[in-house]
Write a structure and sequence with these properties.
452 residues, alpha+beta, Four Helix Bundle (Hemerythrin (Met), subunit A), Helix Hairpins, Heat Shock Protein 90, two-stranded antiparallel ribbon, 10 helices, 9% strand
């Protein structure tokens, strides 16, 4: 509303100027019409005065004398009106003197004298006509000058008030944009799970202040829920380990037949218990790993020897590789410098390599390749096997989502491995995708920035 005040003032001034122009036009139009009418009557009456005086000189009588006197009186009235309205024209005094002499027309006996007076009178009438026209032209010029001044003033006023209105609009917009940007910062901080939000605004529109207050409340509520969720995962996974250890120990005792020889049926049951125990142990480990990942706040970037890290990771899977008759071929292109967080990058490698071993074809070769382009370091893990359906590629990186293919290790996965890879890549300012290549059925590609 403040920004509209200059526009309202402009409309008011425009209306005032319009009324002023309308009044001036009306007054001057009436003036010009009346002056033109009076001037025409003055000219006609002057002609009547000349005609009646000449007739009286030819045929003197009382009727012509009366008509001539009445014409002279009317002429004086018209002349007085024009002289008063137009500001005493210079010729007014001259033609008045001629009228005064013509009043004695009855005493003129010589026609040459009367004709000379009438000729001077007619000439004065023409001069008055010219002076009236000149005065009207001056009045028109003054009116035009006044209209031009109003137009210029209106133009300057429009420009100044429009600029003032735009300035007020910019100021008002800035008063709104600043708290809106503050809200955007708060939303981004909440989305990134930042524990520190921007300071609360001290002044802003009350509606935006209310939204900001709600966002701070929402952030507090989310942090409470995050603490509850984290505590639940930590305690649940930790508490599961104690009974799980007892179950594993009991199964080991039964399997070694320390307490007595087992029948075939009992051995089968003990085998099922061992399998279930291993599966439960894997779930607990994955939950702990995922919980640890979520608790990690900021990555610690430093220069890493990616080739040594891959070799160390592969060495831990030698027994499983031997069981599946699989090989891992490591290809690291020379000159690659990786700056990353060692813990997060190792988690990526562990999960991708274990996933490739679990789903790759038996007696096949898994390839771990590291290359780079202008922007990214590319970590590819390739394996043969069943290609991943395009319909599930988007959701396979979500927690507790897994593909339907059968694993080589006969262990039911928890569905957290690839989600951990995606979260670790995100924390490292990169991403993970499934890409199609000619040399392998499945290829997981992690892109990491070359410089951080």
């Amino acid at each position: 509303m403040v920004a509209l005040i200059p526009l309202i003032a402009l409309l008011w001034q425009s209306q005032q100027d319009f009324d002023d122009v309308s009044d001036i036009t009306t007054v001057n139009t009436q003036f010009f019409v009346s002056v033109a009418s009076e001037l025409r009557d003055l000219e006609l009456i002057g002609q009547d005065v000349e005609r009646l005086i000449k007739q009286y000189q030819v045929l003197p009588n009382a009727q012509l004398d009366e008509l001539a006197d009445f014409a002279i009186v009317r002429f004086e009235d018209k002349l007085e009106f024009l002289c008063n309205v137009l500001g005493n024209l210079p010729e007014c005094s001259v033609i008045t003197a001629h009228i005064t002499k013509l009043r004695d027309y009855a005493d003129f006996n010589d026609s040459l004298v009367i004709n000379a007076h009438l000729a001077r009178f007619a000439n004065s009438v023409d001069i008055v006509k010219e002076q009236v026209n000149g005065a009207v032209a001056v009045r028109i010029a003054e009116q035009q000058a006044h209209l031009d001044s109003i137009q210029k003033r209106q133009g300057w006023s429009t420009g100044v008030l429009v600029l003032l209105s735009l300035a007020l609009i910019l100021v008002a917009a800035q008063l709104i944009i600043k708290p809106v940007r503050k809200l955007q910062e708060i939303i981004r901080a909440i989305a990134s799970s930042s524990h520190k939000l921007p300071n609360k605004s001290e002044s802003a529109p009350k509606e935006l202040m209310a939204v900001e207050k709600d966002l701070f409340w929402l952030n507090g509520r989310l942090q409470q829920l995050e603490k509850v969720r984290t505590a639940l995962l930590r305690h649940a996974s930790h508490e599961l380990k104690t009974p799980l250890a007892s179950i594993k120990e009991g199964c080991a005792i039964l399997e070694t037949e320390v307490v007595g020889k087992l029948s075939d049926g009992q051995s089968e049951v003990v085998g099922l218990l061992n399998t279930s125990t291993e599966r439960l142990n894997l779930l607990v480990v994955k939950l702990l790993d995922y919980n640890s990942l979520l608790q990690q706040a900021e990555p610690n970037f430093r220069a890493l020897n990616i080739e040594e890290m891959i070799d160390d990771c592969v060495s831990e899977y030698q027994l499983l590789l031997a069981q599946n008759d699989q090989l891992i071929n490591v290809e690291v292109f020379p000159g690659i410098n990786v700056s990353s967080d060692a813990e997060l990058l190792r988690r990526i490698l562990d999960n991708l390599v274990s996933n490739a071993i679990a789903y790759a074809t038996v007696s096949s070769t898994i390839v771990v390749r590291v290359t780079q382009n202008a922007q990214f370091v590319l970590l590819d893990v390739l394996n043969d096997g069943n290609p991943i359906n395009a319909n599930i590629r988007a959701e396979i990186f979500e927690p507790f989502k897994r593909g339907g293919d059968k694993r080589n290790d006969k262990v039911m996965g928890a569905g957290l491995g690839l989600s951990i890879v995606a979260d670790c890549a995100r924390l490292l300012n990169g991403d993970v995708t499934i890409v199609d290549v000619n040399e392998a059925a499945v290829c997981f590609r992690v892109r990491l920035p070359r410089s951080v």
